[in-house]
């Protein structure tokens, strides 16, 4: 250690150098892990940016009463006829 450098300043440089070494080693490990992840994705044939497709949920159905069926048929007829509302103008 040089004679004209205070101990706290010297320890600050040591701490800064150690932090830089740790950051660089962590960054290198992260890059290696990401390259491995990309290689696995490439072999699997999937795109990493897109979510995985899940199976569709089972379709549910409800039995309608006769009154509900009649009301639905009336709505279908109403919309099929244009709903009775014609744009003017």
List the helices and strands and how they pair.
Elements lengths: L6 H38 L21 H15 L9
Brief characterization of the structure:
This protein has 89 residues and is mainly α. It is built from 2 helices and no strands.
Which structural class matches the secondary elements? mainly alpha
- Considering DSSP H and I runs of 4 or more, what fraction of the residues is helical? 55-70%
Describe the main β-sheet briefly.
Answer: none
Q: In terms of per-residue confidence, which ranges show pLDDT below 50 for 5 or more consecutive residues?
A: none
Helix tally equals 2
List the helices and strands in order: HH
Radius of gyration: 35 Å
Strand content: under 5%
Mean pLDDT level: 83
Number of strands: 0
Shape: elongated
Distance between the termini: 91 Å
Salient structural properties:
mainly alpha; 60% helix; elongated
Give an overview in words.
This protein is mainly α and 89 residues long. It has two helices and no strands. The protein has helices at residues 7-44, 66-80. The N and C termini lie far apart (91 Å). 0% of the residues are buried.
């Amino acid at each position: 250690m040089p004679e004209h450098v205070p101990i706290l300043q010297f320890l600050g440089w040591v701490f800064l150098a150690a932090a830089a070494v740790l950051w660089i080693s962590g960054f290198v490990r992260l890059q290696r892990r990401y390259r491995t992840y990309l290689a696995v994705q490439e072999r699997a044939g999937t795109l990493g940016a897109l979510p995985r497709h899940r199976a569709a949920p089972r379709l549910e159905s409800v039995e309608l009463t006769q009154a509900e069926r009649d009301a639905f048929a009336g709505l279908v007829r109403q919309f099929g006829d244009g709903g009775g509302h014609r744009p003017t103008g």
